[in-house]
């Protein structure tokens, strides 16, 4: 196995890190969080216009760069280091893959080029507490999370002119600022219950959007109220929306794992810098054996999570049974792969386990950062609490860790027992 990166992948990481270091430092980050959008539009323009980040994993035929999930995940490792607030996760990781998978040719041709250039942002409207369920991260995504024949969620009804939606969705990532909403809604009543996905312009009549206070301010959330809103069905009515959501969950898990590793690595890096300069009893506290042991444990956990995250990113676009090669999934080859080669990919447990390991590593690194920074570690002025809140917020949205692991074990049939004939 060769886990080294290609020069192209290294260049993506280097360029993005330089941009974020100059445009998304602690002061710029805090200023962006206080804006109505919750992110810096100028930074988003730079990420989209200069680096083509929103279109990194979209096909060239629709204006994308034509890279694979590997490059997108590596890029998000850098955005995770900086805790960069942007519509990247909601637009590129959650919404765009659904449009690419389910959309008609006309819908893909109209929307994907605009998403790839960053001129259009999108959000997946699924209730925040049900997001991990909808993406099949912590269990099967059938059931009542989108209404399920009962009151609640978003309901869809057919009219002579198309479809209309009504209902409310809370904790929608970047839902307050997205130009396009991909809304998961229940249709068919109780007897013919099914979940469909719909396209709704963010400024459509009847859409009321309110930004909510979130634990992790770097991931802005919104409440959406849909008051008898005209909607366009995404794809065909017989399309399997639940399978498409599960596929988007595979990509999201790999990307989030790399993002969490980036944040954990940066939290550890800042802690090492601090304990190397903070003196007590006439010597740096980083020279004390107890501190060294704690930092060593964090380092081992972060590096283990990094390996798992890189494997998850590789596995999402690699045929099952293949051996990881140098730079697997790079831009030079990924968009030229025949469709048949992308079938039978590595099964989902790999990405769920990677996400669980990365979220746990981030939680550990962030908590130890607060502790080892001493009195300033829990102050509002220091950045340590932002990493801690990212760890807690991600686990609330996409976890918890024990459920990610339990679902991966169930999917892999790890604990199945067979009766032995006597």
From TrEMBL:
Residues 6-118 form the Acyl-CoA dehydrogenase/oxidase N-terminal domain. The lineage of its organism: Bacteria, Bacillati, Actinomycetota, Actinomycetes, Kitasatosporales. Residues 254-405 form the Acyl-CoA dehydrogenase/oxidase C-terminal domain. Belongs to the acyl-CoA dehydrogenase family. Coiled coil: none annotated. One of its GO terms (molecular function) is oxidoreductase activity. Keywords: FAD, Flavoprotein, Oxidoreductase. Its EC number is 1.-.-.-. Its cofactor is FAD. This is Acyl-CoA dehydrogenase family protein.
């Amino acid at each position: 196995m060769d886990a080294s990166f290609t020069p192209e992948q290294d260049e993506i990481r280097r360029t993005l890190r330089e941009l974020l270091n100059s445009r998304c430092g602690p002061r710029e980050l805090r200023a962006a969080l206080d804006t109505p959008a919750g992110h810096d539009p100028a930074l988003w323009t730079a990420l989209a216009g200069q680096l083509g980040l929103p279109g990194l994993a979209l096909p060239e035929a629709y204006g994308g760069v034509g890279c694979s999930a590997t490059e997108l995940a590596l890029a998000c490792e850098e955005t995770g280091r900086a805790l960069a607030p942007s519509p990247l996760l909601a637009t590129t990781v959650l919404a765009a893959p659904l449009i690419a998978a389910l959309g008609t040719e006309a819908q893909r041709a109209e929307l994907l080029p605009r998403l790839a250039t960053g001129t259009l942002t999108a959000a997946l409207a699924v209730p925040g507490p049900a997001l991990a369920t909808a993406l099949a991260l912590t269990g099967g995504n059938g059931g009542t999370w989108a209404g399920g024949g009962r009151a609640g969620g978003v309901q869809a009804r057919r009219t002579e002119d198309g479809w209309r939606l009504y209902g409310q969705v809370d904790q929608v990532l970047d839902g307050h600022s997205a130009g396009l909403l991909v809304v998961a809604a229940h249709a068919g009543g109780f007897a013919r219950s099914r979940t469909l996905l719909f396209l709704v312009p963010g400024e459509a009549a009847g859409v009321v959007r309110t930004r909510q206070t979130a634990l992790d301010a770097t991931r802005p959330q919104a409440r959406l109220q849909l008051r008898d809103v005209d909607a366009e069905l995404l794809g065909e009515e017989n399309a399997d929306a639940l399978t498409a959501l599960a596929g988007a969950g595979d990509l999201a898990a790999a990307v989030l794992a790399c993002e969490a590793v980036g944040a954990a690595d940066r939290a550890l890096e800042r802690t090492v810098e601090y304990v190397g300069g903070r003196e007590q009893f006439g010597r740096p506290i980083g020279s004390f054996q107890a501190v060294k042991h704690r930092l060593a444990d964090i380092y081992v956990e972060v590096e283990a999570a990094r390996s798992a995250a890189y494997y998850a990113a590789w596995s999402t676009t690699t045929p099952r049974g293949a051996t990881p090669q140098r730079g697997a999934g790079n831009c030079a080859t990924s968009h030229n792969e025949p469709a048949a080669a992308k079938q039978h990919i590595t099964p989902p447990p790999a990405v769920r386990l990677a996400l669980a390991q990365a979220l746990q590593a981030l939680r550990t690194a962030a908590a130890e950062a607060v502790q080892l920074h001493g009195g300033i570690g829990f102050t509002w002025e220091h950045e340590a609490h932002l990493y801690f809140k990212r760890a807690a917020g991600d686990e609330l949205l996409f976890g918890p860790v024990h459920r990610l692991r339990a679902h991966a074990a169930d999917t892999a049939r790890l604990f199945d027992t067979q009766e032995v004939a006597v």
